[in-house]
Design a protein that fits this description.
By secondary structure, the chain is α/β, with parallel strands linked by helices. It is about 40% helix and about 25% strand. The protein has 2 domains: about 5-120, 3-Layer(aba) Sandwich (Rossmann fold), CATH 3.40.50.2300; about 125-215, Orthogonal Bundle (Arc Repressor Mutant, subunit A). The chain has helices spanning about 10-25, 35-40, 60-70, 85-90, 105-120, 150-160, 170-175, 185-200; strands at about 5, 25-30, 45-50, 75-80, 95-100, 125, 130-135, 140, 145, 165-170, 205-210, 215. A hairpin with a 4-residue loop joins β7 and β8 (about 140). α2 runs parallel beside α3 (about 60-70) and α6 crosses α8.
Length: about 220
């Protein structure tokens, strides 16, 4: 059963949403503040419903923290009806922004759409025992889900899409970190090292080309 994490400091709102989630045959996890949300988030969570204005840690920071570690849908549910807040949420990695009050049936339709998109079981690639699902952005080594940060996933896909092509550090840096400032070449080497460690036996297929860059063979 897919798990949905509801992060909301209003207990009545949490319970209201919980009823609809469970009636739609999903499991509902609850957090009343940002700190509790980060404690409960895990690979088993399929989607997050996130309020913005909360005690201890606001939704902006929670959204950013979740997105740094997980590629799951994040839907913002907030009474804050401001364009700047909405833009900021998208910049932090949110997938949708819904202002209160909202219609429960519309919310559940959005949830269903995101879960279908992110949890498609059709593999994009099966390479050397590594399976990648582009729709859900999930990576499997055998039966085990490999947890990759967004930049690690983007780097892996860039290598796969350019299999047997030697990529310079400059090319990798420009593709993966093109929107980031003050990033140097060392970040490429560090992320390659992390990928190799996380991908276990698959990591040996990422070869170093001395004085140039890397290639997936």
């Amino acid at each position: 059963m897919r798990k949905i994490l509801v992060v909301e400091d209003d207990s009545r709102m949490r319970e209201f949403i919980k009823i609809y989630i469970e009636n739609s045959n999903y499991e509902c996890l609850q957090a009343e503040n940002g700190e509790e949300a980060l404690e409960k988030i895990s690979n088993s969570v399929s989607l997050v419903l996130l309020d913005l204005m909360m005690p201890k840690l606001d939704g902006f920071h929670v959204c950013k923290k979740i997105r740094e570690e997980y590629e799951i849908p994040i839907i913002i549910l907030t009474a804050l009806n401001e364009e700047l807040a909405e833009v900021k949420c998208y910049e932090m990695g949110a997938d949708d922004y819904i202002t209160k009050p909202f219609k429960a049936k519309v919310l559940m339709a959005k949830i269903k759409r995101f879960l279908e998109r992110y949890n498609n079981d059709i593999a994009y690639a099966d390479l050397f025992g590594l399976k990648i699902n582009r729709e859900s952005r999930r990576v499997y080594l055998g039966e085990n889900n490999v947890k990759l940060a967004p930049k690690e996933y983007k780097l892996l896909m860039y290598l796969i899409d350019n299999k047997d092509i030697v990529l310079s550090r400059e090319q990798i840096l420009d593709f993966v970190w093109k929107d980031d400032l003050d990033i140097n070449m060392r970040v490429v080497d560090n992320h390659i090292k992390k990928l190799r460690n996380k991908l276990d036996i698959f990591g040996k297929h990422i070869e170093t080309v001395i004085s140039v860059g890397y290639v997936l063979r």
